[in-house]
Amino acid sequence: MFAKLEGLEKKYMELEEALAQPDVFNDQEHYRKLTKAHADLREIVDLFRRHRALQQEMAENKQLLHDEDPDIRDMAHEEIRRAESELPRIEQALKVALLPTDPLDEKNTILEIRAGTGGEEAALFAHSLFRMYSMYADARRWKVEVDSVNETELGGIKEICFTIEGDGAYSRLKFESGVHRVQRVPETKSGGRIHTSTATVAVLLLALRANLRGREQVTFRGRAIPFSQVLNAMTLTLVVLFVFLIASMVISTVEGLPYLNCAYEVASAMGTVGLTTGITPELTRISQSILIVLMYLGRVGILSFSIALMTGKRRPAKLHYPEINVMIG
Predict the structure, then answer these.
(1) What order do you get walking across the sheet with 217-220 strand by strand?
(2) For the chain, which terminus, N or C, has the lower number of CB atoms within 10 Å?
(3) Closest CA relative to residue 202, chosen from 147, 249, 254
(4) pTM listed for this prediction
(5) How far apart are CA 125 and CA 303, in angstroms?
């Protein structure tokens, strides 16, 4: 364990040297990665250095036990007892710090609090929970933003949804999910027996849209489709919509017919269902040519999509764990 800690300390010192370079600010993305790595190692390096300092103090105080002055020997005994009581706590903290971390722990989170059984008292309890989480976030210098809230007349909260942004927010709050219960004399009454109120807390993982940019493929009915093809399909859809609007407008202007009738003719042609209305034979040659071109383009598009779908590679079924909730924001 200590060999690994020495390696982490060496890496920490290298990061400090890299951050001290004058040209480190030229690349903001590289600078952000350096500061993030430096901050992640600071706590464990400080613990390791404190552990090493305590061991060195114990070694020096053990030498003072042979001193002729009794006061010095008593002081050395006291320092050794203090170090021996602190060392196990630091060693346990080092073991915890060396455990592998969940990559999702550094994400932001969304909390949803709903009042449960207990009526107005449950709404007041939900408000107390919101204040508790808000004060905890302020103490850790996290940002709290209320997304939606449904308040009662007495200042309680029936339902509230808020976002907490900050380093390690999800790791600190992910175990808060579940039903919370309080037993107390109701604040809505002057006296009486103890009342039980409940509130539910849901902790959702907030994944930024930027995290989806690195996806290489999506799954449709068990078949893997490259993400680039999905983007191309979205672009093609916008182009087809633009062509549909322009073609409908051109035919309506040339023929002097209602726009909706012309739009139906264009949609019929592009959907390869044939020309179904009775105005098609009455169109001019220009309009008929436009509809024929759109009809064949529609057939080619449907054929291309079918081939891409049938040739997609089958993906094995993927297990989903219900305890990990993701909200896209």
Answers:
(1) 217-220, 223-226, 313-314
(2) N
(3) 147
(4) 0.48
(5) 59
Strand partners, 151: 157
User: Phi and psi of 265, rounded to 5°?
Assistant: -60, -45
Q: φ and ψ at 183, to 5 degrees? A: -125, 115
- Cα angle vertex 242, ends 237, 246, to 5°? 150
**Burial degree of 29 (CB within 10 A; 0-12, 13-18, 19+):** exposed
Burial class (CB in 10 A: 0-12, 13-18, 19+), 269: buried
Closest CA to 133 of 147, 153, 152, 112: 112
Residue labelled with tokens 């190692």: 41
Note the pLDDT tens digit of each residue in 212-234: 444 555 555 445 556 666 667 67
Burial 299-309 (b: 16+ CB within 10 A, else e): eebeeeeeeee
Task: Give 191's DSSP letter.
Answer: S
- Contact status, residue 85 vs residue 177, Cβ threshold 8 Å: no
Q: Which helix (H) or strand (E) holds 234?
A: helix 227-255
Q: Rounded CA gap, 251 and 260, in Å?
A: 11
Are residues 145 and 152 in contact, defined by beta-carbon separation less than 8 angstroms? no
Instruction: Please give the helix or strand (H or E) that residue 253 lies within, else none.
Output: helix 227-255
How do residues 82-109 score in pLDDT, each as one tens digit?
888 888 898 888 888 777 777 777 788 9
Helix (H, G, I), strand (E, B) or coil at 24: helix
Rounded Cα gap, residues 51 and 55, in angstroms: 6
- Residue 108 in tokens: 């932001």
Query: What phi-psi label fits residue 109: left (phi over 0), alpha (psi between -120 and 50 degrees) or beta?
Result: beta
